[in-house]
Amino acid sequence: MANEIMFKSKFTIYVGACWILAAFGGLMFGYDIGISGGVTAMDDFLIKFFPKVHERKLHAKENNYCKYDDQLLQLFTSSLYLAALVASFFASKACTKLGRKLTILMASAFFLAGAGFSAGAEHKWMLILGRILFGIGVGFGNEAVPVFLSEIAPVQHRGAVNILFQLFVTIGIFIANLVNYSTSRMHPNGWRMSLGLAAVPGLVLFFGSMILTETPASLIERGKDAQGKAALKKIRGVDDVDNEYEEIKRACEIAKQVKQPFKKLMKRPSRPPLIIGIMLQVFQQLTGINAIMFYAPVLFQTMGFKNNASLLSAVITGSVNVASTFVSIIAVDKIGRRKLLLQACVQMIIAQTAIGGILVHYLKTTGSLNHALATVVVILVCLFVMSFAWSWGPLGWLIPSETFPLETRTAGFAFAVSSNMLFTFIIAQLFLSMLCHMRAYIFFFFSAWILIMGVFVIFLLPETKGVPIDSMVERVWKQHPVWKGFMDDDDHGSKIQEIA
């Protein structure tokens, strides 16, 4: 059986460069996640665009949990994700018709335009337009980059290679926190510097995408068989690629018979990867991670930290985020996806409930935590971020990118990306209001969701470690005790035999 052969490959400098350059799409995304929270905590930014919020912030006796509760301020952060939600479906079409490489190039161009509008904004509409352009770039990048990485990675290292995307997301967040810490002292235009520097990863991706190879699957899918085989030899570093080439070719033949991939996704045999892909992205947001990452400086100010101290605390959590992602890169192809996810659920629940307990008892509507308790909260936040960074962060992107068959891969991943963006938008738009109304109990809200996530993994998430990307139907879905029932009317396997 072809799907039981370990395809030949060796590492080359070129393919390593392709992995790194494509992963800059994650750095763009991460930089934006990290930069917005710090910018919204800067007085100069608030004075210019949100003076009422700044006035509330100055009131010493103002409710700790409500001083940043402003829908327009939250729209500054969340508008990006609403734009990314819509853009991801156009990105799916671009990935299929134009290829992964060109879609990545388009993502960088939108991001550069967003950086220009945001940094030069004089009115709120310019600020929001910049965020929308950022969002389109994020939608295109988050659609194309994980699929690109999964398709060019050798099966034995696919998990680690795909996690480069999430690693660069964490690096982007960390860099954004460092930038905010520095620019917060640059009056009155430090916020412009923070937003404008988003152009740097955009430029790297823009020029880097020009030297990326297109994925063999994309080339063969578009009828460029010779180029596809040549690209496969280039990224594998060996000439003997016949077995893998034939596997991709068979998958492409099946894909060509599917004229409407979005309609195919609605059929019963497509539901297992679709449900898994969507729910992993939804659950990723319901851990509460982006509530912390978006608003870390604001959150730490709520706990009584001064402005610079809160930004410094965000830098600390950002560095933990980066370092912990390396754990996932090392472990994901050795111990598997499920064990990482389940271990993290336990650690995240402990951290979140402990944070909630401390804040319920010690942080009232006015006043602040004492230094010792504030330090404990920062440590607990780091423990939470640590476990997320080696589990739900990277695996939320990895698993959907590797489980869809080629005929529905870009369409299915578009649903996964759009689900992520939808719930990122919801959390970004509602978090500060939820913090105001739920107060410290918001951490118990997220803890309850993490418990549900653990149950979902135990019963419904199959292990995909070491399975070739185009063999998932036969070796994963048809073997799973729950999902195999959805495959009864699937003619995927028979089509493979007919084509072979």
TrEMBL record:
Domain of life: Eukaryota
Gene3D superfamilies linked to this entry: MFS general substrate transporter like domains
Main localization, broad class: membrane
Any one annotated GO CC term: membrane
Domain Major facilitator superfamily (MFS) profile: 18-465
Record key words, sorted: Membrane, Sugar transport, Symport, Transmembrane, Transmembrane helix, Transport
Pfam families found in the cross-reference section: Sugar_tr
Topology in the lipid bilayer: Multi-pass membrane protein
Protein location: Membrane
Transmembrane feature ranges: 12-31, 72-90, 125-149, 161-179, 191-212, 274-298, 310-332, 344-363, 369-390, 411-432, 438-461
SUPFAM superfamilies found in the cross-reference section: MFS general substrate transporter
InterPro entries, sorted: MFS_dom, MFS_STP/MST-like_plant, MFS_sugar_transport-like, MFS_trans_sf, STP/PLT_plant, Sugar/inositol_transpt, Sugar_transporter_CS
Molecular function per GO: monosaccharide transmembrane transporter activity; symporter activity
Keyword Transport assigned: yes
Family affiliation: Belongs to the major facilitator superfamily. Sugar transporter (TC 2.A.1.1) family.
Descriptive protein name: Sugar transport protein
The organism of origin for this protein: Actinidia chinensis var. chinensis
